[in-house]
Specification:
1 helix, 23% strand, elongated, 3 strands, 69 residues, mainly beta, three-stranded mixed β-sheet, 6% helix
Amino acid sequence: METSCRACAAQMAHCHGTLIRHWSGRPECTEDGCASPELTLHAFDVECVAVGCECDQPIGSGVRAVSSA
């Protein structure tokens, strides 16, 4: 049984974490030690509101966005 992904086997630069794109433009990766969250080397890429982040709200609004999806 193979224990690594295809990109690992091919020694390609990639990350197994999920890239979270914040409204401020700051990327964040869920993988500890990810060396390049600003690059698109991630298999999964989500907007921050998908994980419950509130950074898209105006400062002091006290309103939390509710997703209808």
